[in-house]
Amino acid sequence: MSGENVELVRLIYASLTRGGDGLMELVGPDFVVDFSRRRVDPFVVTLDQDALDALRPGLLETWEAPPTWEPQELVDAGDKVFAFIRTRARGRASGVEVDAYVANVWTFRDGKPAEFTYFGEDREGALEAAGLEE
Fold it and tell me: What angle do CA 20, 110, 23 make, to 5 degrees?
């Protein structure tokens, strides 16, 4: 099952790169997105189609196009997947290119992603949260 979890996370990042097309079909009901560790505009939201639709305009106001999400490392941790990704985007107003490497943890329940937690540059914290060590 866990190899399937890693593949599902890979598919979700591909969906996000396409602007979230098909995302809701890939995640479980009451999917929680936790960006509380983010320095700018932290938030936690239970994602359904309405919440996803509400987030899209802000994303497209900020960036010329949806950011790309390129998994650099996906590690199976049972009911969790540690993800180290490269995300890139260009600011709509500034034209400045953002290129960052960030860590995330995906938590699964009943074979579906139930929670996404953003750790930003805190790779060690994400590994610990996933039950892994560097």
Answer: 5
